[in-house]
Amino acid sequence: MQEIISKLSQEISEVTISTKGQLEDFKLKYLVRKGLIAQLFDQMKTLPKAEKPLAGKNLNQLKSLAETKYNDIAKSLENGASDRKAEVDLTLPGRHAFLGAEHPVQKILSEMKDIFIAMGFNQAEGPEIERDDYNFTLLNFPPDHPARDMQDTFFIRKDSQSEDVVLRTHTSPVQIRVMMEQKPPIRVICPGKVYRNEAISPRSYCVFHQLEGLYINKNVTFADLKATIYSFAKQMFGSNVQLQFRPSFFPFTEPSAEVDITCYLCGGKGCRVCKHTGWLEILGCGMVHPNVLRNCNIDPEVYTGFAFGMGIERTALLRYKVGDIRLFYENDLRMLEQFI
Ligand code: DAH
């Protein structure tokens, strides 16, 4: 009997129990009414009288050893610790965490914004659903002026009773909003989405981004405009870049110009991207038309200013050598993951 008791006592001390299932087995083996310890108590009756006291003492010790172990482990499993530990396989490989990234169009836009903000421009925003007069009339497009045909417009509301509402076709209406609200000096950039009802192709899409710039103050000249655009272009496209200002027409600027940079894929030698001209157009600009200033209650005899507007996707296409503008709008992870 002594031998059995000390064997069991060793067994109980050494057994490891880490789940509720194992604990239940332990109880069934040692502690229930038909368990090993109960059986030993039964057998004790058959022992010679002289051996009974010692056997009884040892058996009681064995029983309390088993009970204490049972209670302690039950308590710690209740707290959950070892149970969970047993269920987690620490050798499993970790789950792959997907990293988010800025969209390539937003990356280019942030670079542009940083350059202008460092020059002292503030940021202004306007709505994408815009009043017709802000998008056209106040920008010096008369109601039936053919210049309106330059942009294929999405109309939100068009009837003779009320004012037309459009999806803005450019960010220039934000100029109007800013000039209506602020007194010169004004120095703002207005980034945002614009919409055009154009045939969709690798080079044009129905929605894209523009960044508009506006500077109004006393004595602002075309030289200030040129200096600003030069400084921007060198920071954005590299210090070796060359620029050309080509006379152009916009109803809201006079004089107006379009600006080209030397193609930064071929360095001006001529390639497929610049259509073998060596030049890439990057923006439109000019001196704000006196009518536009007047429309916003700014006296053109006192103040002058310049404005410019550029497309963002065009730069993103070139910078990242993406062949199709639609890829920026399809949210295909195989494309976007390349910008992480
Ligand atoms: N709004 C013109 C466009 O969408 C771009 C532009 C040209 C903006 C000249 C200007 C500007 O502010 O002065 O094509």
Distance between the termini: 73 Å
Compounds present?
3,4-dihydroxyphenylalanine
CATH class value of the largest domain = Alpha Beta
Unreliable stretches (pLDDT < 50, length at least 5) are none
Q: Give the overall form.
A: rod-shaped
Topology:
Blueprint: H1 2-14, H2 20-31, H3 36-44, H4 52-78, H5 81-87, H6 104-118, E1 122-123, E2 129-131, H7 132-135, E3 155-157, E4 165-167, H8 173-181, E5 186-195, E6 207-217, H9 222-237, E7 243-250, E8 253-262, E9 279-288, H10 290-295, E10 304-311, H11 312-319, H12 333-336
Parallel strand pairs: 1-5
Antiparallel strand pairs: 2-4, 3-4, 5-6, 6-10, 7-8, 8-9, 9-10
Bound molecules: 3,4-dihydroxyphenylalanine (DAH).
In words, what does this structure look like?
The structure is a single chain. With 340 residues, the chain is an alpha+beta fold. The protein has 2 domains: 2-84; 104-339, BirA Bifunctional Protein, domain 2 (2-Layer Sandwich). Helix content is 38%, strand content 20%. A hairpin with a 7-residue loop joins β3 (155-157) and β4 (165-167). The protein has a 7-stranded mixed sheet with strand order 1-5-6-10-9-8-7, with helices on both faces. α2 (20-31) packs antiparallel against α4. It binds 3,4-dihydroxyphenylalanine.
